[in-house]
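Figure 3 (text version): structure tokens given as input.
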């Protein structure tokens, strides 16, 4: 797999203006600046970026995009950003077949010819021909069957549900008026209260949180009479599971996909990855072992689609582990916790070139910054100075201050905080280029 992040790769895959109109992005508002950075990297200018305050599944995302669309002549292609399509030629051929059906008011789903009886995917049974080359009406869906049922479905010519769709946004709205009128009305209200800033459309949190969280398949595809499927073999993989990542990763002679500080002995057909501590695996087969800086997961590969159940258990038993990550992204870069005590904590802060933190102040903590790489420009009270590697500065509490990176390489510094309260909400912003001034 390419080391480029999947979202950027997905954006690049629809960047050919001879085939695609400018994309419309639907994503979490917390990822706003990651989305902008990825679009800049791909040199793609979107028609709009719809920022959800929280996830409400694919039905809400697809319908809000259809309501935002102003051009009645375009078709909407729904492309999840965690899918890989390896065979571009086969993908474009399938897309061309789907365009004819979508232009005739079908809601077209791309069905993947299965390689094996995967229990983590939905299956589609094809019905009568839809009147277009290699396009059939959808007879029925089967959600995530057991292995025996999956094998039986494959023997009947069933296809995997890719979650990739093509349709006219006007057609989708008409279907939603019949099949999901309450949801459509709620989304219209959400859009009426949205805040627009350039191409960014920020949705109202209270109204959006009240929406049902439902997949597009369940709300629309399982009930519409206009559903159609295009079968294709295009090197597709939904890498939302570790099983799928194992499928698409380069493997050693024993069938192991190994990344990071990993030692394997007498282990076969496994996905083993570490982004933190060294991981040693002995005498295992068909497992996924994933270690991050703050947690380790071990599971049979066949159960990796059930990780949501595991996450729910973590959220119940250790909420802080599910909510807080070792490395936290910010529009200016990131920070990572290194050590923490009752009245101190140490962080590694990274500031991207040309980026700056807000002009801010803390009531309960003082900070000491030590530059380890790059160049820092620091405003502390009325004093402004440049800091270079191995230089430091002390920021007293209740003092306005700002940190920025005027250089062309990343700025790395160690921050030592001390005080009687060290929460992230102890912050008063006075000026902020990211629209957060006045917010805690």
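Below: residues designed for each position.
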């Amino acid at each position: 797999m390419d080391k480029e992040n999947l979202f950027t790769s997905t954006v690049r895959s629809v960047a050919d203006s001879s085939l695609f109109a400018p994309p419309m992005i639907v994503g979490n508002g917390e990822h706003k600046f990651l989305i902008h950075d990825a679009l800049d990297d791909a040199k793609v200018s979107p028609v709009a970026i719809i920022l959800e305050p929280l996830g409400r599944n694919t039905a809400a995302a697809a319908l809000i995009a259809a309501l935002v669309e102003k051009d009645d002549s375009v078709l909407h292609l729904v492309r999840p950003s965690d899918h890989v399509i390896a065979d571009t030629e086969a993908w474009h051929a399938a897309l061309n077949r789907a365009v004819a059906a979508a232009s005739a008011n079908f809601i077209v789903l791309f069905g993947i010819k299965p390689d094996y009886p995967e229990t983590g995917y939905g299956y589609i049974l094809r019905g009568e021909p839809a009147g277009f080359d290699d396009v059939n009406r959808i007879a029925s869906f089967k959600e995530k069957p057991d292995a025996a049922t999956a094998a039986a479905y494959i023997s009947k010519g069933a296809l995997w549900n890719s979650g990739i769709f093509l349709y006219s946004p006007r057609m989708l709205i008409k279907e939603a008026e019949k099949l999901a009128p309450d949801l459509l009305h709620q989304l219209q209200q959400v859009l009426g209260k949205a805040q627009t800033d350039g191409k960014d459309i920020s949705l109202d949190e209270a109204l959006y949180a009240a929406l049902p969280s439902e997949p597009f398949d369940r709300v629309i595809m399982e009930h519409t009479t206009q559903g159609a499927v295009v079968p294709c073999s295009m090197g597709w993989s939904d890498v939302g599971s570790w099983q799928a990542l194992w499928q698409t990763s380069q493997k050693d002679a024993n069938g192991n996909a190994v990344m990071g500080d990993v030692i394997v002995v007498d282990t076969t057909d496994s996905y083993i990855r570490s982004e933190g501590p060294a991981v040693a695996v002995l005498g295992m087969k068909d497992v996924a072992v994933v270690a991050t800086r703050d947690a380790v997961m071990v599971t049979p590969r066949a159960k990796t689609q059930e990780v949501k159940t595991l996450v729910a258990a973590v959220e119940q038993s250790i909420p802080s582990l599910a909510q807080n990550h070792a490395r936290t992204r910010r529009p200016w870069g990131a920070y990572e916790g290194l050590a923490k005590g009752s009245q101190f904590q140490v962080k590694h802060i990274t500031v991207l070139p040309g980026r700056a933190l807000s002009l801010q102040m803390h009531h309960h903590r003082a900070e000491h910054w030590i530059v380890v790489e790059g160049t820092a420009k620091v405003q502390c009270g009325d004093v402004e100075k440049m800091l270079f590697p191995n230089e430091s500065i002390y920021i007293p509490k209740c003092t306005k201050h700002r940190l920025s990176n005027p250089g062309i390489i990343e700025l790395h510094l160690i921050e030592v905080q001390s005080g009687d309260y060290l929460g992230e909400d102890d912050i008063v912003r006075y000026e902020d280029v990211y629209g957060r001034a006045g917010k805690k």
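Residues 88-103 form the longest helix (16 residues).
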